[in-house]
Design goal:
- With about 260 residues, the protein is α/β, with parallel strands linked by helices.
- Helix content is about 30%, strand content about 20%.
- The strands form two sheets. The protein has a six-stranded parallel beta sheet with strand order 3-2-1-4-5-12, sandwiched between helices. Strands 6-11-10-7-8-9 form a six-stranded parallel beta sheet.
- Helix 1 links the parallel strand 1 and strand 2.
- Helix 2 crosses helix 3 and helix 5 packs across helix 6.
- It is elongated, with a radius of gyration of 20 Å.
Length: about 260
């Protein structure tokens, strides 16, 4: 912690922040907060076995629902909570919003702006994984599946397709579709490399979540360049909490 008189670096005085992380944007925000000498903790869900290092002290694992999170916020005397989890991490976001509302702790969601279709894109926009599997149709296709390992089992309902699944952590084999090739990789990815991969794997269609950001956008650019359709799964709506799309808006929230 620092003194108010330290100017820019003094913003952290009297603030103790819980940053719910797990995204590249959250990691960059943690670095910015550390540079400004904010007192805080980054919380990671623990879905990956080798998470990247954070600039703030880190805890890993769940809280035990809303009540567990309320206890943690109270015991650790957090004054602010920032939700910088993945746009599709709906449960922890809902729990954090409910816990903060119950305790009167200021809360903000730091969310990547979602991607928007551009000229040349052939998007099929759907609400969830099951709708995405149905949107693939009855005719067998080569599918580039880039939704992470959560929800892969939904595509077992469309076993006529051949899947190429790219993930950071390998899912339970019992959850995989009948014909599924695994690629283990972590972004960022480059446009030309994505084009080469889709050509090599003879991809007919791409399935992805609209998670926004630059880290994995190259697959959208590659699909556009190759004229491939993209089944785009919409993120959960966040209408009941304040939302920021950039670091400066988060810092303004902390200063208020």
């Amino acid at each position: 912690m620092c003194n108010e008189g330290d100017g820019e670096a003094g913003r952290g005085a009297a603030r103790r922040i819980l940053l719910l992380g797990g995204t590249s944007e959250g990691r960059a925000l943690a670095a910015r907060l550390a540079a400004l000498r904010y007192d805080g903790v980054v919380s990671l869900a623990g879905r990956t076995s080798a998470p990247l290092a954070q600039a703030l002290p880190t805890r890993v694992g769940g809280f035990g629902g809303v009540e567990g999170l309320k206890r943690y916020l109270t015991e650790e005397r957090f004054t602010h909570v920032i939700d910088a989890t993945h746009p599709f991490a709906a449960q922890i976001s809902a729990n954090a919003g409910a816990a903060c509302a119950a305790l009167g702790v200021p809360f903000i969601a730091y969310v990547r702006a979602p991607w928007a279709p551009e000229p040349g894109d052939r998007w099929i926009e759907v609400a969830d994984n099951k709708s995405a599997a149905a949107a693939l149709g009855e005719t067998p296709r080569r599918v580039f599946l880039t939704i992470g390992r959560q929800g892969v089992a939904d595509f077992r309902d469309a076993p006529q397709h051949d899947y190429v699944l790219r993930v950071i952590e390998r899912p339970d084999p019992a959850e995989l579709p009948r014909s599924c090739e695994l690629i283990s990789a972590r972004g960022p990815f480059a446009r030309e490399a994505e084009i080469a991969l889709m050509r090599e794997k003879r991809i007919d269609i791409v399935v992805t979540k609209n998670s926004g950001g630059a880290l994995t956008y190259a697959k959208i650019e590659a699909a556009r360049a190759l004229g491939l359709p993209v089944v785009m799964i919409a993120p959960p709506a966040r209408t009941d909490v304040p939302v920021a799309h950039d670091v400066e808006a988060v810092l303004a929230f902390l200063a208020s």
